[in-house]
Structures are given as C-alpha cells and as structure tokens.
Amino acid sequence: MWAPAEIDIERPSPARIYDYHLGGAHNFAVDRQAAEQIAAIMPELPLIMRANRAFLFRAVRLLIDAGIRQFLDLGSGIPTVGNVHEIAQKAVPGARVVYVDMDPVAVAHSQALLAGNDNAAAVQADLRDVPLVLAAPQVRRLIDFSQPVGVLMVAVLHFVPDRDDPHGIVARYRDAVAPGSHLVISHAAASEDEQAPAGADAATAVYSRSVTEATLRTRAQVTGLFAGFELIEPGVVYVTQWHTDTAAGGQAEPPQRLAQLVGVGRKPQ
C-alpha cells in the first residue's frame, strides 16, 4: 500500500487497524500484526468494529431522515466501504461531508478517494484542536454552521484520555453548531457485569502500549458526553440495541458481548 514518504509505517495506527478488521486494503503489516495480537486476547473485537460500522450506517440514515444535509466526521479513519459520504449522498446527492483525522495515511487515502467529489473533503487535524478544525478551509467551504450539522464521533473518543477533557471537547463542538444539529457517538464500553467480553481490559492495555492510549468508559460516562443534547430513543445503549430489528429471533448473545456503547443526541432549539 502507498504511504506518504514522511509516514512511519513501523508504528500501527488505529485507523488502519479498523480498516483491516473491516476487510479494507489500506493497512500495513504492522497494523495487521497489532490487530491480530489484540483480537487474540479479545476475539469479539472484529465483530465490534463491524457492528460499529453498521451503527454508523443506521445513524447517518436517521440524520438524513431528520433533515441533516451536512456532516462533520471527526476521527473518521479511512473511509472504506460504507462511509459517510456514500451513505448520505446516495440518499441526498447534494449532502456535504468533511472527514477529519490526525492519521496522514488515512487523510491521504481519503483525499484520493474523494477526488472529483466537490461535496466531500478530508482534513488532517486532531479533533482535540477544535479551533483548528473549525477554521480549516475545507470545513469553512462545505459546512454552514448557521444550519444544522451532523457531528460524528464514531469509535474515537475512547482515544481521548480524561486529562484531555473529552466532555469539554464535545461541548466546544456543540457550541459551534446550530440548534437542530445532531451528535453521534460510539465508544468502547468499560466492563460493568459478568456478561461483558473476557479480555477487554487486557486488550485495552495491549492497545495502549502498542498503538495508542485507550480509555474505556461506562454507560453513565458516555451519557455525560451528550450534555446539552436531547438523547434520541433508546438513549445510550450497546451497539446491537440501537435501532436494530430483533424481531426475527432476537439477539443470539447478550448485547454486552459487543462492548460498544452508542447514542445519538439532538441540540434543542
């Protein structure tokens, strides 16, 4: 796989590990090795990542149905199959999407994928630097902050440690968007009962050592990230419980087995 010359391809990347588990081709041997090492400790991890991508599809469709026509995808990773602009622009061809990620490989491949798409762009930036993200030329060109925005923080806030104040970061984006905007979050769940997947803590420790620091959070902590938003039913739940059709046979396993908490909130008028 091609990479910019300045990229250290000997260090694994969260974006590329995610891409590998989704069956993508934008990853290196070091990413595949790390992905397999962590999955050996927590075998549910590839399933969690695929369930997370399915949640993204459902959430974007819900936002489209709510009238959202512009999306700011923070910590977007590599937009492999089932990405935001594909989902949104299939439903509404004029929908606008800006991807933001700090991984230069993810951004480079996003830019190549988006060539010729005037309604989508990719920005290399750290979502924690809110003023930098909001001032990026691509963001200013495509996002009208006087109109509702879909702000997506999917599988990224567990990489923001408490010392970096994730609540404050989310609040700054909340304050920048118009009423009627929506916030979409998915977040790795801390173990709270005996039905949680074995190995989650050990896998997180390995991930933090070999890839990047990760912080698991409880349902109450993830719910707190939605301060200032009205949670859409069913609130903050496990990924397999959010707007999925369980009529045909129900869920085969406890939802805690796929330990990803998700939710969508709306900024009130």
Characterize the structure shown.
Strands 1, 2, 3, 4, 5, 6, 7 and 8 form an eight-stranded mixed sheet that branches. Helix content is 37%, strand content 14%. It is globular. It contains ten helices and eight strands. The protein has helices at residues 14-21, 29-41, 45-65, 84-91, 104-113, 130-135, 137-142, 166-176, 200-210, 219-224; strands spanning 70-74, 96-101, 120-124, 150-154, 182-188, 230-231, 237-238, 260-266. The longest helix is centred in the first third of the chain and has 21 residues, at 45-65. Mean pLDDT is 85; it is low at 246-252.
Give the arrangement of secondary structure elements.
Elements: H1 14-21, H2 29-41, H3 45-65, E1 70-74, H4 84-91, E2 96-101, H5 104-113, E3 120-124, H6 130-135, H7 137-142, E4 150-154, H8 166-176, E5 182-188, H9 200-210, H10 219-224, E6 230-231, E7 237-238, E8 260-266
Parallel strand pairs: 1-2, 1-4, 2-3, 4-5
Antiparallel strand pairs: 5-8, 6-8, 7-8
Tally of DSSP β-strands:
8
* Multimeric status of the protein: single chain
SSE arrangement, N to C: HHHEHEHEHHEHEHHEEE
Largest sheet: 8 strands, mixed
Strand proportion, as a percent range, falls in 5-15%
What is the overall number of helices? 10
